[in-house]
Automatic annotation (TrEMBL):
GO molecular function: phospholipid scramblase activity
Gene name of the encoded protein: LOC109906560
Protein name: Phospholipid scramblase
Region Disordered, annotated ranges: 1-34
Protein's job: May mediate accelerated ATP-independent bidirectional transbilayer migration of phospholipids upon binding calcium ions that results in a loss of phospholipid asymmetry in the plasma membrane.
Classification of source organism: Eukaryota, Metazoa, Chordata, Craniata, Vertebrata
Amino acid sequence: MSAPGYPSPHQGPGSYSTAPYPVPHGGYGDPNHAPPLVDFHMGYNHKQLHPGQPVMHQPVPMPEYGVPQMGPGYGGPMPGPEFGAPHSGPPAAISPAPAAVVPVGVPPGLEYLTQIDQLLIHQKVELLEVFIGFETNNQYEIKNSLGQKIYKAKEKNDCCTRNCCGALRSFDMKIKDNMDREVIRLIRPFRCASCWCPCCLQELEVQAPPGTTIGYVSQDWNPCVPKFSIKGANTETVMKLEGPCFACNCCGDVNFELTGEDGSKPIGRISKQWGGLIKEVFTDTDNFGIQFPMDLDVKMKAVLMGACFLIDFMFFEKD
């Protein structure tokens, strides 16, 4: 009997639904390798698409103008009519290329998110931090379940803020696609980290494209358990996120469970991977996994990426 998949708490523009399927158990694997990573045993199927749904791919560089197109065997230019061949009539009209089908309401650059239900986020190792402890801008690679890079993220702020404010620091983070185009911007203001100060809770704004707010991640006050609200552009609560009482990964993963607006039924999670004793002790590089329903609004998928970065800074960034 197949395990039921998580239902979607919110269906919006640019979202699709698909039937769940069983996924074998296992670990996330090394993000630097390409084999499938299958710890997300939530029952989602990123291979099956809704009938009629276009297959969206990350944009790739197009051939330069004037470069001859290659023939079927890729051994040379496409052959043309031979010299002296009889004229077969007027040249056929060139039909225009079909327009790319883009789901309605999907911000530019986020089309690929409509067909996946999980993401891997791998923080890059900064040698300057490892050897002398000098805090540098965090950099991340965002990959699909096959370990293929689909986005890259880089923190942007000044040296004084990074080294004086530590994990509490404010930042702007730019997320770019494989064409080096900024598709998402994350904005985190400076806030107090004390659980006893409900007036200064953490918050992060998500923009896609930059300048257009699509949602927020807001910390909910709780003296014992880390809780967050995933909100839309009008600050309406769409989902809830709740972590363990002690958010530390001592030889194991740390899971932040994602639920619907009422907080009752789980629909996904954000997981901090255990990276090994040496890596955890001597570096602050982290690996995360994000799971969500396939038919979740693509904007909320982007907001969950922002939630993952906020969790990293709050609980796993070493001062």
